[in-house]
Design a protein that fits this description.
Number of helices of chain B: 14
Number of helices of chain A: 13
Helix content of chain A: 25-40%
Distance between the termini of chain A: 38 Å
CATH class of the largest domain in chain A: Alpha Beta
CATH topology of the largest domain in chain A: Peroxisomal Thiolase, Chain A, domain 1
CATH architecture of the largest domain in chain A: 3-Layer(aba) Sandwich
Structural class of chain A: alpha+beta
Strand order of the largest sheet of chain A: 5-4-6-7-1-8-13-12-11
Strand order of the largest sheet of chain B: 3-2-4-7-1-8-11-10-9
Number of strands of chain B: 11
CATH superfamily of the largest domain in chain A: Thiolase/Chalcone synthase
Order of helices and strands of chain B: EHEHEHEHHHHEEEEHHHEHHHHEE
Radius of gyration of chain B: 20 Å
Shape of chain A: globular
Largest sheet of chain B: 9 strands, mixed
Oligomer: heterodimer
Shape of chain B: globular
Number of domains of chain A: 2
Largest sheet of chain A: 9 strands, mixed
Structural class of chain B: alpha/beta
Chain lengths: ~475, ~400
């Protein structure tokens, strides 16, 4: 049996009400009134597709030994790098072994389902044992248009394997077409589209049913067999129309995430799948469609093992929210405004690539060392033990801090340090089990931070040097 | 068995420029001015200087590296000249090495001068740290500022000793107000305006909970000392000032990486104090020290320093502050010159500028008589280079009399 053995979800904490956008921009475009419902999830200034994918993957992996993963396939149409494998960065952040297969899946919104299928295929062929398929998107939209309303940021990760399957992948069917509902040239910032009605009539209402029919006919299945059907059209009416076309009842449709998150691109069908799994019962069959450059349709059957898993992942992510009351802040975070960074913010020192390579486990995976002589964990990796009663030289093993809980020792909110979301909050964290360092704090407000409060570590963009195409990825502390 | 340098070396001349935003002065102007005053004060000539030590910190912002900016500016005639740097402890380090040069017998007369010219960088505050912290720290550390790193003392200190936020902020305000008052009596100080505690407490936030009046600004300036062997000092002047101790303690890295330190004090300052009191033969600092110039880069630094120096007991500094123990008219005046806060903090010069205040006070020659303390015998200066969890601290003890 090959299928999903675990899954994880990540939704950024900031939520922007669409009414807030409409109130600011309706003077320019009142036609977006029909979209101004609910809210969208907005990645923090220190997040991107890669960081969100890592967060969802950590949620997926839980306590599983990292050495068991032998592949990671990343899917996104908004990857930070065009030439530097994003999946390899993710693999380093997740502290996976080097002897694995890493791949980036890009360029269409069905990249998420395609990555999931490729992972399952590798396992089925016996070429891989346990592969992470992760999709994330953080797309930019032009100001005042409908895309700005529709898009949301988020990620979902799935582990495919044979051991402890919670949802067996029974079969899939794919049709591939250059159906150009969206297009973005390399180096361009914004997707361009075509008339919505054409996209719906010639795309969603023709291509999705074709792919579904292909799957059902191949296996002699009926649409009524499925407890849940995932149709990734953000407009509820379109999803319902597709459901009608394939003969599915309204109550079979998995609820969309438009009103609470927005259209998260390649991650969207996978996030809806996660929501379906959150509520699924053993024996349920789930149909998932991914649309973009054609259509993937996948059938899963939930097993009894699903009961062992902590669930309501999507619900918990949705509940962890903070209102983004400023539309300008949203534009600033998506780098759509020429902000005055000041002389201090405009210059930045180069990053030593050779140093980052040498110390990659420390920088990207937050690995320090533990002294074999006295057992003290310490960060970063030390040659000489920091314990004043020990001082042993060269007695260290790598020790990972990224998955250890911590506590705030000291903190401040710095209004002088450059930050895209001032004040810059940072301070010292003591880790459970030993070890200490100082970090930026993120996803919190200064007035809520207290000495002694618990934190967990999160992978973020700590700085960006756009002129040199360097993103300084690293770990920040997130107060709980 | 090492004896330390108590009473082996004396200061026979000092100089100090006005500190401030000296747009019209270059670092060369400042060096010449401070050294000239010191030479005249010592009654010697440039040719009598046998070794020289230059203290500068943010060298990339003005002079550049090596000792050559000093040897070239003063046209020193091919003598040993060395640049020293240890963040904000630099000025005291320049003095320490001049003192050791003389104490070792390597030379008879040595000069130490510190200078910093930061007002050519084009923006307020210190230069961008991303260039200055080293290649690994650049990638690993948050984008920190000095106020941000020192401010962390406050949250931890007030939480541990259960001092409510308002009372804590008020104590910090009293510390700054005291220094502001002292600087109104100091013509060389950068800032010379009174402030009251209310102003300090309601000032704009810089790094929580430190506001505008809790943070020293950035100044240009230079200060200089000329030293010789203690048993020859009276050949130059009747009132030399004796070096009782020059101590430095650099962190082992424990505060930053080991979970013992609790962010409510500064460990190297305490270790340097222990060593300095041992070297100087001081057994009861609260009674034996007449006056202090400590590193008040931030008001909260001064607060914990009173305890690091074992003058206030741990957790009791706020009480001493509220009772005026460290005021100009208190039991142990602290920052009689106005401190870093108001005299200014040209980083490489500060340790020596603190020495200048101790020197003039011990000689009874304070520039304005209203600032002259009554019969001071022992003065202590203290610097913190780096930030509380990662620093090197220097302590220098000056005495009016040998023995």
């Amino acid at each position: 049996m090959v299928g999903i053995t675990s899954y994880g979800v990540y939704i950024p904490r900031y939520r922007l009400k669409r009414k807030t956008i409409f109130d600011r921009m309706s003077w320019f475009n009142s036609a977006t009134a029909g979209l101004a419902r609910g809210e969208k999830a907005v990645a923090n200034y220190d997040e991107d597709s890669l960081t969100m994918s890592v967060a969802a993957s950590l949620d997926c992996l839980g306590d599983l030994g990292r050495e068991q993963i032998d592949g990671i396939y990343l899917a996104s149409v908004s990857m930070p790098y065009a030439n530097r494998q994003n999946a390899a960065i993710a693999a380093t952040a997740l502290d996976l072994s080097p002897g694995i297969r890493t791949m980036d899946f890009q360029s269409s919104l069905k990249a998420g389902t395609s990555a999931l299928l490729a992972a399952a295929d590798a396992v089925r062929a016996g070429a891989r044992k346990s592969v992470l398929a992760s999709a994330a998107d953080c797309r930019k939209a032009k100001i005042g248009g409908s895309q700005e309303m529709i898009l949301g940021d988020g990620a979902a990760s799935f582990l495919l394997g044979r051991d402890g399957v919670i949802a067996e992948l029974l079969d899939s069917h794919t049709v591939s077409y250059d159906f150009t509902d969206l297009r973005r040239g390399s180096g361009d910032q914004f997707d361009q589209g075509w008339e919505d009605r054409w996209v719906r009539d010639q795309g969603h209402l023709k291509i999705i049913p074709e792919a579904v029919a292909g799957l059902l006919e191949k296996n002699g299945w009926r649409i009524g067999d499925f407890a849940r059907v995932v149709i990734p059209c953000h407009a509820a009416a379109t999803a319902q129309a597709v459901a009608g076309k394939i003969g599915a009842a309204r109550d079979q449709l998995q609820a969309g995430l438009f009103e609470s998150v927005g259209d998260t691109g390649s991650a969207y069908p996978l996030m809806m799948l996660a929501a379906a799994l959150d509520q699924a019962n053993p024996g349920d069959k789930i149909l998932v469609a991914g649309f973009g450059g054609g259509c993937d349709v996948i059938c899963f059957r939930v097993t009894g093992d699903i009961a062992d898993l902590r669930r309501d992942k999507v619900g918990q992510c949705l509940a962890n929210r903070e209102e983004m009351d400023s539309y300008m802040k949203f534009l600033a975070f998506r780098e759509l405004l020429p902000l005055d960074l000041g002389i201090r913010g405009e210059i930045t020192a180069n990053t030593s690539i050779s140093l980052v390579w040498r110390d990659r486990r420390e920088i990207y995976a937050l690995c320090g060392s533990r002294c074999r002589s006295c057992g003290t964990p310490q960060f970063p990796y030390q040659e000489v033990c920091v314990n004043p009663e020990c001082g042993a030289v060269g007695q260290m093993d790598f020790y990972r801090f990224s998955d250890r809980p911590g506590k705030v020792v000291s903190f401040t909110g710095d209004y002088l340090a450059f930050s895209l979301n001032p004040p810059a909050i940072y301070g010292f964290v003591d880790f459970e089990g030993g070890g200490r360092f100082f970090f930026d704090f993120t996803d919190c407000r200064l007035e809520d931070v207290k000495v002694g409060m618990p934190v967990k570590m999160t992978f973020r963009r700590r700085y960006a040097d756009a002129a040199r195409a360097i993103v300084g990825y690293g770990w920040k502390a997130q107060p709980l | 068995m090492a004896e330390g340098i108590k009473d082996k070396v004396a200061i026979i001349g000092m100089g100090c420029t006005k500190f401030g935003e000296l747009w019209e002065k270059s670092y060369q102007d400042l060096l010449v001015e401070a050294v000239q005053e010191a030479l005249e004060d010592a009654g010697i000539e440039k040719k009598d200087i046998q070794q020289a030590y230059l203290g500068t910190v943010f060298d990339e912002a003005f002079a550049g590296k090596s000792s050559l900016p000093l040897s070239e500016t003063l046209k020193l005639p091919f003598i040993p000249v060395t640049r020293v740097e240890n963040y904000c402890a630099t000025g005291s380090e320049a003095l320490r090495w001049a003192v050791y040069a003389v104490a070792s017998g390597a030379c008879d007369i040595a000069l130490a001068v510190g200078v910093e010219k930061l007002k050519d960088i084009g923006f307020g505050g210190l230069p961008d740290f991303s260039f200055l912290l080293g290649t690994k720290n650049r990638v690993l550390q948050p984008n920190i500022t000095a106020p941000g790193m020192f401010a962390q003392l406050a949250a931890s200190y007030f939480t541990k000793y259960k001092i409510n936020a308002e009372r804590g902020k008020r104590a910090l305000g009293l510390i700054s107000a005291k220094s502001h008052h002292n600087a109104t009596l100091n013509p060389r100080a950068h800032l010379r305006k009174e402030i009251d505690v209310g102003q300090a407490c309601s000032a704009p936030m810089v790094a929580w909970p430190l506001g505008l009046y809790d943070c020293c600004g950035v100044s240009d300036g230079a200060a200089c000392a000329i030293v010789c062997r203690a048993d020859r000092a009276k050949e130059f002047r009747p009132d030399p000032v004796y070096i009782k101790s020059c101590q430095v303690a650099a962190t082992s890295g424990e505060e930053k990486g080991f979970t013992r330190y609790d962010s409510t004090y500064i460990e190297p300052a305490h270790r340097a104090a222990l060593a300095a009191y041992r070297e100087a033969g001081i057994s009861d600092p609260r009674k034996q020290i007449s006056m202090l110039e400590v590193h008040d880069c931030f008001s909260v630094t001064e607060l914990v320093t009173y305890e690091d120096l074992m003058i206030s007991p741990r957790g009791r500094a706020v009480y001493d502050v509220e009772e005026g123990f460290f005021n100009l008219d208190g039991k142990m005046p602290c920052q009689p010159s106005g401190g870093l806060k108001c005299f200014g903090h040209p980083i490489g010069a500060s340790g020596l500028r603190m020495g200048y205040e101790m020197y003039k006070q011990l000689q009874g020659k304070s520039e304005l008589p209203q600032r002259q303390l009554k019969d001071p015998r022992i003065g202590l200066t203290h610097n913190v280079g780096g930030f509380p969890a990662y620093c090197v601290c220097s302590i220098t003890i000056y005495g009016r009399d040998p023995g």
